[in-house]
Amino acid sequence: MSSQKIPPLTYKIIAECSVSKARAGIMSLCHSDVETPVFMPVGTTGTLKGVLPDQLIDLDCKILLSNTYHLGLRPGIDILEKAGGLHKFMAWPRALLTDSGGFQMVSLLKLAEIDENGVNFRSPFDNSECMLTPEHSIQIQNVIGADIIMQLDDVVKTTTTGPRVEEAMHRTIRWVDRCSEAHSRDEEQSLFPIVQGGLDPELRKQCVAGLLERRVRGYAVGGLSGGESKDDFWRTVNICTDLLPKDKPRYLMGVGFAADLVVCVALGIDMFDCVFPTRTARFGCALVISGQLNLKQKKYALDMRPIDEECECSTCKTYTRSYLHHIVTVEPVACSLLTVHNISFQLRLMGQMRSAIEKNEFPKFVQEFMIKHFGNDPIPKWITEAMASINIQLLEDKDLMNENDLTLRN
């Protein structure tokens, strides 16, 4: 009697918020089980700047993101294939997700030409030309060996309007089929299609309908967090999560600000990635519940407290704001120290949300988070409207909630 093969991705919902669309789950991948909602730190070329894989394991990071376009250029698929894939090459034993390279259509637009065949890039390193087709993107990702791989999609700037948006949406659906046909490691790697359609609700609905006809293990929502209004942002996310199936993970690409993460978990998103926590560390900024501490400011010169007194990361356990003030943007080690803390902050925030969902206390968590995050400033209207749409009412008068009653735990 033959044994049934275990798929390379299974997703189980552990708990659901009784009020909003938030849910907590476990996504089982070949290299690790990943609790959702989850934030994926970005190691574009197979590394987080200044942080070792062992440090990420100490932070209990279960999954990283790397980029197909950049890895395809350097070190290239020949070296990655000889190394046995990116996991072995970078000594990372846990899960990986790779972006397809489609985002570079926007970020490197001056270096790219797009047609039905694919994207013709000019290398920023040596000016050589590289044609990235759906098939070649999947070939690179098959060699990289990531647990989750992304289709090549036709990406346009979020504020684009007119026929180009519809063209990109339909092309994205066509390219899914080319990616699926080229995918040679389906028993080990799960291919996610990407919902496109700009800020047009009808195009987003059409795209979801087209993707639902394909057999896949999860879905990504792309083409956001690129300059659109926050009102358009949350409404587009909300439309997509209303239509995407509940039994498969939903990944919102390129989102990492704390308030955005909380809002989008409430709207039903499970997975996130963003360069923000690592990039802002390089500029001397540390993430805290109220936003950021710019440690370059003179007011921290004599501050002997840790970045966050409730944070358990190695940076907060060992170093003061004063010490960090004197080395940020000057000594390379400061980048490492702040990156460790910022990644810890993001992962703790996701853990807090998972815990609140499991206890069916998520609406209370959202209320308390927003009060601590915005302090004396008013909560932005787009957030109150987004939360009201899924039955979470935010307190307009913050005096109604006594500071001593806040239960937001680190």
UniProtKB/TrEMBL annotation:
Annotated catalytic residues: 99 (proton acceptor), 273 (nucleophile)
Which co-factors does it depend on? Zn(2+)
Query: For this UniProt entry, what's an example GO CC term?
Result: cytosol
Q: Where does Zn(2+) bind?
A: 311, 313, 316, 341
What Gene3D superfamilies is this protein classified in? Queuine tRNA-ribosyltransferase-like
Quote the subcellular location field of this record: Cytoplasm
Which keywords describe this protein according to UniProt? Answer: Cytoplasm, Glycosyltransferase, Metal-binding, Transferase, tRNA processing, Zinc
Binding annotation for substrate? 99-103, 153, 196, 223
Major site of localization recorded for this protein: cytoplasm
Query: EC?
Result: 2.4.2.64
Q: Does the keyword tRNA processing apply?
A: yes
Q: Where is this region: RNA binding?
A: 254-260, 278-282
Q: Which GO terms describe its molecular function?
A: metal ion binding; tRNA-guanosine(34) queuine transglycosylase activity
Question: Which GO biological process annotations does it have?
Answer: tRNA modification
Domain tRNA-guanine(15) transglycosylase-like per the UniProt entry, residue ranges: 20-373
Q: What's its catalytic activity?
A: guanosine(34) in tRNA + queuine = queuosine(34) in tRNA + guanine
Protein family: Belongs to the queuine tRNA-ribosyltransferase family.
Subunit composition?
A: Heterodimer of a catalytic subunit and an accessory subunit.
Q: What does this protein do?
A: Catalytic subunit of the queuine tRNA-ribosyltransferase (TGT) that catalyzes the base-exchange of a guanine (G) residue with queuine (Q) at position 34 (anticodon wobble position) in tRNAs with GU(N) anticodons (tRNA-Asp, -Asn, -His and -Tyr), resulting in the hypermodified nucleoside queuosine (7-(((4,5-cis-dihydroxy-2-cyclopenten-1-yl)amino)methyl)-7-deazaguanosine). Catalysis occurs through a double-displacement mechanism. The nucleophile active site attacks the C1' of nucleotide 34 to detach the guanine base from the RNA, forming a covalent enzyme-RNA intermediate.
* Annotated HAMAP family: Q_tRNA_Tgt
The protein, known as: Queuine tRNA-ribosyltransferase catalytic subunit 1
